[in-house]
Q: What sequence folds into this?
């Protein structure tokens, strides 16, 4: 249980285009999903926190108009990188916090496998 | 503050024990985690410890927490080549669901 998937796993796009990344919790409902960015050989940096049915909360320094987050259901959040540039190339990882009370999943975050974005 | 620090690299021989260290600065952290990341993959939760515990053991993994010194360690017994990966410690404050990650320690297990 507690599986989080991301799609696509790898995407290459041209500069100026937009790219959408999906994050799904496959076997649990996620009240909250988190989006992280990881540069090569570096740690994960939290970009934003996404709550189902409400606007995402962005970390300081993250442009909300560039990184659009939608959390339309308890199992799906999307991150759209708009007008992508080469400096947006990175590994994007989502995580989901389980909603279900009374189980070992409660309040823990489970991570997706990541999406590698390369902008040419 | 929200700094979590780790040494960058550790190399051990197969069969030896590995000890990965982590220091954090925020004494209000209530949960501390260890995650494993293999190349090109997401993070896998290995274990976690509550701040009111000193030690937690789970099969080959032993977590030690020194709350006074804000020091966390992960010991891997009988390290195998499949344990080669990057290990991240992370802290979470009870008032927030945000995780603050360390810089990661790259563990290399030599045959």
A:
């Amino acid at each position: 249980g507690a599986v989080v998937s991301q799609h696509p796993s790898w995407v290459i796009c041209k500069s100026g285009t937009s790219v959408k990344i999906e994050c799904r919790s496959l076997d649990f409902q996620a009240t909250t999903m988190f989006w992280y960015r990881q540069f090569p050989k570096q740690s994960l940096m939290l970009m934003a926190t996404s709550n189902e049915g409400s606007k995402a909360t962005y970390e300081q320094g993250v442009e909300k108009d560039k990184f659009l987050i939608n959390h339309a259901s308890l199992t799906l959040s999307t991150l759209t990188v708009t007008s992508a540039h080469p400096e947006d190339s990175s590994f994007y990882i989502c995580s989901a916090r389980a909603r279900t009370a009374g189980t070992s999943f409660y309040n823990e975050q489970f991570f997706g496998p990541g999406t590698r974005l390369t902008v040419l | 503050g929200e700094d979590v620090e780790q040494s960058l690299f550790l190399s051990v021989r197969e069969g030896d024990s590995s000890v990965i260290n982590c220091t954090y600065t925020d004494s209000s952290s209530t949960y501390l985690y260890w995650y494993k990341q293999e190349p090109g993959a997401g993070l896998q939760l290995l274990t976690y410890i509550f701040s009111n515990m000193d030690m937690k053991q789970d099969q080959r993994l032993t977590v030690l927490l020194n709350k006074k010194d804000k020091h966390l360690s992960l010991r891997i017994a009988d390290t195998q080549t499949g344990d080669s990966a990057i290990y991240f410690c992370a802290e979470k404050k009870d008032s927030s669901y945000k995780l603050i990650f360390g810089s990661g320690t790259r563990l290399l297990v030599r045959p």
